[in-house]
Amino acid sequence: MGSRASTLLREEEIEEIKKETGFSHSQITRLYSRFTSLDKGENGALSREDFQRIPELAINPLGDRIINAFFPEGEDQVNFRGFMRTLAHFRPIDDNEKKSAASSEPPLNSRANKLQFAFRMYDLDRDDKISRDELLQVLRMMVGVNISDDQLGSIADRTIQEADTSGDGCISFNEFMKVLENVDVEHKMSIRFLH
Amino acid sequence: MVWFTWPTDNLLCRCPGLSITVWLTLLFVLIIAPAVLGGFFNIHTLYVRTLLKIFEWTSLLMDKRAKNTNQHIHKPCLRGIIAKDPPLSLQQAIQGFGGSVSCQHSKPKFEMSDVFYFNQRGVESIVDDEFTKCFSAQELESWNLLTRSKYNFPPISLRLVVLWSLGLLIRYGLLLPLRVMLAVTGIGLFLILSTLVGFLPKIQLRSYLSERVHLMGYHFCIRSLTAIITYHDRENKPKNDGICVANHTTPIDVIILANDHGYSMVGQVHGGLLGMIQRAMIKSSPHIWFERAEVKDRHLVAQRLSDHVADKTKQPILVFPEGTCVNNSSVMMFRKGSFEIGCTVYPVAIKEGEDAIQFANRVKAAIAARAGLVDLTWDGGLKRAKVKDALKAEQQKLYSKVLLGEHKEQSDKLGEGGNPG
Question: Considering only residues 388 to 417 of chain B, which have any Cβ-Cβ distance to chain A shorter than 8 Å?
Fold first, then answer.
């Protein structure tokens, strides 16, 4: 009759995801049905092609970088837990979070974690530093063919000059956070999930 | 022993024979005769209304039970997963509203936070995009006593289980054989009558008869599918000189539309049962069936369509410009082929399961907006092919403009204002 019992989400799993990510029960079930609708191969995991099938994402200049953020180092498949963990970065920071400060780790959607997501957009080789090359590559992705190499190079140089306080020619995560300390990260990196 | 078994045999033979006769008479009187003569019978409306009341009652029951036992019931979300803000232009989103402080910059202004915008848009589209939604089956609002959603509805009370098994019995034991029989009778009758009409010479009577035969065939299909169709704005029915375009939700759209008025179909030649039906149809009225190879030759297609339209005695053609089946929630980009012929185009909107007022309002809005615009710009063929790179290049161009464009805008303003710094 159309129910795929083998891929249904069990209550225990929902509880675990709830604790880890902070999503509500109904949000998790809805995101699960979204996950399964993207999973064309029906093997319980998403591949890069599954993401690329979304047209709005395919025309996003940073589409490939965003897709990459979902996949852990060296892996080609992301399961539902991984999917939710990455999406959790985009939950809005609300007052409820202050209550669960008892847990040792900061919640996935804390300001620091959101900034880390953005940092990884730039950090192509995941060595926790943004080099001039990496910055150039990301800039090139965003502007396409419309700006010359020289201009782009000078933009990159200026940005690194402003941000790099340690003088090593690369931007570390702390320097990145310092540059963005006045930016309203909470709103710009949040998606309002309906209850 | 012989005379003892003989009466029982006789009885056993008679019983099924008797019941079949009764059954067939009932069938004929109640359903076949009105279908052939073209009348509608309101038993179905009554049946559907009763069903709807039962579904309402069951869902109320389930809600109550769920509250009592504190279980979670899956409620399909009809409003969407996320709340999207009205889309800002790229410029506003990246630089915020109200002028930015650095007005006099002659150099392009890049912030490391510019990625935030693309991140947010990207992840939003992963969670909820317009395109993928169109191709997934819609979820029902409440359980219809047969699981169709992915989540199993647990048997909550004895009453529900009894009702469910009763429903199962009626649906599979009574209604299913009835409908199958109807379908078979319908198709058989249609094939025979259509061929017969084809033998008549080309006179007025023939086209009248062929239309009646076609309508009868469709009435049968409708009965076997137990569709309840409401036609709105019948005065806008297409006339003989044009093309009728409609959105495509299911393969039976054709039958639903044709139930009301005879149309000429356009389609590929098929084999098997469908091919037989196609050949029968073409004997009595002019449909346009293409060989596979011809479909690719657009001029040939256009030529045949224009020829058909030019002939005023032929019925209007029915075309589905989306090119693919879409679910009930949106309309995809229309392919331009059917609009190149240069004749009158009659739009038709098909929507499942809605009451008259909602439908009327929507059709009014749709017609007003339809003067050249379509609701979605995504090509339905993207289901199978990749997005064109040109669209991505547009986004990149927009961002570049934002990067460089600021000082250009400011210099324009200075030129106009006349009072430099």
Answer: 391-397, 399-401, 403-404
| Residues B88/B95, Cβ–Cβ less than 8 Å | no
Best residue of B77, B109, B396 to probe chain A, by most A CBs closer than 10 Å: B396
Query: Using the 8-state DSSP alphabet, how is residue B256 labeled?
Result: H
Q: Judge contact between B147 and A3, C-beta under 8 A.
A: yes
Considering only CB atoms, which chain A residues are within 8 Å of B394?
59
Strand-strand pairing, B288-290 and B264-268: parallel
**CB < 8 Å from A in window 102-121 of B:** 107-108, 110-121
Backbone torsion region of residue A171, taken as left when φ is above 0, otherwise alpha when ψ lies between -120 and 50, otherwise beta: beta
CB A122 within 8 A of CB A138: yes
Backbone φ and ψ of A78, nearest 5°: -125, 130
A-B interface: how many C-beta pairs under 8 angstroms? 177
Interatomic CA distance for residues B255 and B245, integer angstroms: 14
Distance CA A20, CA A18 (A): 6
Beta-bridge partner residues of B317 = B243, B264
The torsion angle over the Cα atoms of residues B377, B378, B380 and B386, rounded to 10 degrees, is 150
- The one-character DSSP state at A192 is E
Cβ–Cβ < 8 Å for B167, B145: yes
Rounded to 5 degrees, what angle do the CA atoms B412, B415, B420 make? 115
Residue B312 C-alpha, separation from nearest chain A C-alpha, in angstroms: 43
Residues 335..394 of B with a Cβ closer than 8 Å to A: which? 378, 382, 386-387, 391-394
Q: How far is CA A68 from CA A47, A86, B261, in A?
A: 10, 11, 54
Q: Say what angle helices A132-143 and B389-417 make with each other, to 10 degrees.
A: 90
Q: Which of A158, A62, A96 is nearest to B396 (CA)?
A: A62
Residue B72 has its nearest CB partner, among A25, A143, A194, at A25
Buried-exposed string B345-384: b where 16+ CB fall within 10 A, e elsewhere? bbbbeeeeeeeeeebeeebeeeeeeeeeeeeeebbbebbe
Q: What is the pTM of this model?
A: 0.61
Beta-carbon separation of B131 and A56 below 8 A: yes
User: At A136, which amino acid appears?
Assistant: L
Strand pairing category for A45-46 and B317-319: unpaired
Neighbours of B417 (CB within 10 A): 8
Q: What is the DSSP letter of B235?
A: G
Cα torsion at B232, B235, B241, B244 (round to 10°)?
Answer: -10
Residue B13 exposed, middle or buried by CB count within 10 Å (0-12, 13-18, 19+): exposed
Nearest Cβ partner for A56 among B80, B129, B148: B129
Each residue's pLDDT, cut to its tens digit, for chain A (195 residues) gives: 333 434 577 888 889 998 888 888 888 988 998 898 888 888 889 999 989 888 888 888 999 999 999 998 888 899 999 999 999 999 888 755 554 555 567 788 888 899 999 999 899 888 999 999 999 999 999 888 888 899 889 989 998 988 888 888 899 999 999 888 888 888 888 888 887
- Which of B119, B138, B378 to substitute to test the interface with A, most A CBs within 10 Å? B119
B:128-187 residues touching chain A, CB 8 A cutoff: 128-132, 136, 146-152
